[in-house]
Amino acid sequence: MASYNPLRDVERLADVLLSEPLRGPRQMPMDLYRDGDHYLLTADLPGMDPGSVDIDVDGQLLTIRAERTLPDAENVKWITRERTAGSFLRQLSLGQGIDTERISASYDNGVLCVTIPVSERAKPRKVEVMTGGAGETPQTIQASDPTPAQLENSPA
């Protein structure tokens, strides 16, 4: 998964301060962590119509898009207007150990939750140690529980 880059926070602040309002895609704040055999991504999308949220997986690239529209009131004089309308976009490179076929998502109370499972071949597994030479029947030994005879006969 992606690693933390402190310069990304500076870039976001510069984008907010230097960009013109209501132009171009905006980023959504998100958290991403691993919990056992899956990653969990949560993104804040308050006030979004769930039908406007679009999630695509293309190879190892996950793209989240959302659109917020605000009512356009005629003949009003705005005192302040801090809520932004427009497109919101976030893209993540998933890496090779992800099961892209089983990614799932839900949206509740303005929070998008995307579950990204780790593929079976990327999960840790035990490897059995076999003994026996050619023509002999192999025997499985437990590497964590050797017998005294195994310890004496093992090469140093």
UniProtKB/TrEMBL annotation:
- Where would I find the SHSP domain in this sequence? 21-132
Coiled-coil boundaries: none
> In which residue ranges is the amino acid composition biased (Polar residues)?
137-156
Pfam families, per database record: HSP20
Q: Which InterPro entries match?
A: A-crystallin/Hsp20_dom (IPR002068), HSP20-like_chaperone (IPR008978), Small_HSP (IPR031107)
Q: Which family does it belong to?
A: Belongs to the small heat shock protein (HSP20) family.
Name assigned to this protein: Hsp20/alpha crystallin family protein
Whose protein is this, by species? Leucobacter muris
Source organism phylogeny:
Bacteria, Bacillati, Actinomycetota, Actinomycetes, Micrococcales
